[in-house]
Amino acid sequence: TKNYLLGVGRADCTGPVAEIPLMGYANPKQVGGGLFTRLYSRAFIVADFDDTKRIVFVSADIGMVSQKLRLEVLKKLKSKYGKLYRQDNVILSGTHTHSGPGGYFQYTLFWITSKGLIKPSLNAIVNGIVKSIDIAHQNMKRGRLFINRGIVENSQINRSPFSYLENPASERSRYSSNTDKEMVMLKMVDNNGQEMGLISWFAVHPVSMNNTNHLVNSDNVGYASYLFEQEKNKGMLPGEGSFVAAFASSNLGDVSPNTKGPFCVNTGESCDNPQSTCPVGGATMCMAMGPGNDMFDSTRIIGQNIYLKARELYEKASQEITGPLSSAHQWVNMSDVSVELNATHMVKTCKPALGHSFAAGTIDGVGAFNFTQGSVEGDPFWDEIRDQLLGKPSNETIACHKPKAILFSTGEMTRPRPWHPDIVDIQIAAIGSLAIVAVPGEFTTMSGRRLREAVKREFHSHGTPGMDVVIAGLCNVYTHYITTYEEYQAQRYEAASTIYGPHTLSAYIQLYRGLARAIATNTVQDLPRGPEPPLFNIGNLTLVPSLTADRVPANKTFGDVLQEVRQLYRAREVAEVTFVGANPRNSAENATEHNFLTVERYANTSDSWHVVQNDASWDTRFYWTKGLLGQSNVTIEWHIPHGTEPGVYRIRYFGHYKKNTHSVSIPFEGASSTFEITAL
């Protein structure tokens, strides 16, 4: 068979791990304070036999891909590769972890919770994505693709089951569950049988880590990637090795990994009711619980479930994918799409708006949209934002969004920049019989089913039966949620966050059918490009404190130990050491590949130290605590895993300090005393 040219790449995209609001729960109090696991961009390039067509799929450990992020990446790819990598053949997808740094958005709404536009955060992600594509590009090899699919159990619940029940009974009866339990996997092997990597698509929210967490990490799907890559890159540290395993998002809109369901934090009783509310304390007390005894444990359990199913599907994958490559893309003004429901009935989408339930949040994370707090007053930029928030929606917008009670009429808010996108990417990439439908947000379970079915039917009716249609979530631009028309009527969080109104899903189905038709009939070149999205040139507009000089306590220097390790540990215990620290943001601005810590084992034979863990390891945690007057501490924990080789170990810390606000960062390091690990 004529096979493909394949390339895989992985690059760090972690960015600053301190003082930056984490993106996902919209909770301004949830700012970074350290690092649990690193964030990576994982890139996959498929080219056809004679290298006339290419498709790039990137899954990055971030909350979502923003329009600003995508446009900046495409700009860099264009200057590097000319017309090779373009808006039609590059798909950028976010895993939807809620524990990555925010601040990489150009639309005003997202500035509120992530404190504006944060250049170091944006740059880390842009550079990481581009670097992962570079690595894949430089390592193209002839190879083969295999697809497999299977059911993942005990890893999801529907977090808006009462909305799901609004869908027609005849439709619901076709499905055994109110979540999509199927994982679809694409396996890559080169012609010499060398394993290259995989992409798995599975619908689940990476919110096993809840909104009390302050450590940057990639959550449950990131842990699945970690386990798969650790298994295949034997003897390598996390983040190293050539095998790349991406666990990408899908139609996860109403899907939670917190499988015990919602309980009242204060009383312990269930709050699985249509309003997700508790008798005492209301909705703010209702939180879903994961299967573990804490959020780290829940992340581990869900991540491991996903990994184990993926490994089984990977090993058994035998259905080969062959056939041509094709990609189709359009920009669409989603605030003004006419949808033909049937021969006699036309409806329209609306200017973007968010409903009241948006502010309430979900059982995975209670809302925190309280703008009346004193902290933002007195800043003319934020004063203007507050005035905009109090603006009334027009009658037209109110009527269009019914029955949504509008909280923020974002489509009518344009200062200092538009609050929400109008111009949205729609995109499909076909690799042989696999169609990857790249969607700009979070489709609910039933919305995703309807979209996949419509695309599959469209391919079929134009002579391409039996396509495997997979939804890739959180691609290209973020437009919140997409519920079905029926779910929209219930106006829970997901529906309140369906920003283009009740017919959003119908509009997307019509548009994606158009792309599928163009691919199936080989008329992609005739598709109109659509209106180009704006790229706003925004300076550093941010409430994040500026970096100031780092200071040390009297008679101490950076990297000195303040609280020492014990001399002896056993497996399953926690070795912990605290250092005189400096702001980790200094390191992020200094180096892309900075490692904050190592765990090292002493080798007698060579009288040298060997790194056994780094800051990307699942077993290490890096905490930064800000003190007064520029002082700060760093605490490093090593949760010593079962099976750790007995011997002599030490923990090292690597940081950078600034002498004054405008000086360069100066590197320093510290080390714990040596300690021994004994066999049980």
Automatic annotation (TrEMBL):
Residues 4-510 form the Neutral/alkaline non-lysosomal ceramidase N-terminal domain. Binds 1 zinc ion per subunit. The active site is at 256 (nucleophile). Zn(2+) binds at residues 96, 205, 442, 481. The keyword Endoplasmic reticulum does not apply. Keywords: Hydrolase, Lipid metabolism, Metal-binding, Sphingolipid metabolism, Zinc. Its EC number is 3.5.1.23. InterPro entries: Ceramidase_alk (IPR006823), NCDase_C_sf (IPR038445), NEUT/ALK_ceramidase_C (IPR031331), NEUT/ALK_ceramidase_N (IPR031329). Its cofactor is Zn(2+). It catalyses: an N-acylsphing-4-enine + H2O = sphing-4-enine + a fatty acid. Belongs to the neutral ceramidase family. This is Neutral ceramidase. The gene is Asah2.
